[in-house]
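Progress report, Aim 2. The chain analyzed during this reporting quarter is listed below.
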Amino acid sequence: MAIITIKSCLVCGSDDLKKVFDAVDHFSSGETFAICDCTHCEFRFTNNFSSEDIIGRYYDSPDYISHSDSNKG
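Predicted structure tokens for the chain:
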């Protein structure tokens, strides 16, 4: 599985990043993902995530509701 690791802040470019906590995907995979902060600008982001070619599997469920105002998957 191809994993993307962010090594510098996407907002300010600082490489001073710290892991704040772990988040668990309780919906589909059960995997744990690191939530990190940039200590310079305080941007918070998910790190160590799947690449674009395989990320769709996390949303491949008839029960998944996208970020919209609709209750449809």
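The chain has a mean pLDDT of 84. Strands lie at 3-4, 17-24, 32-38, 44-47, 49-50. These observations will guide the mutagenesis work planned for the next reporting period.
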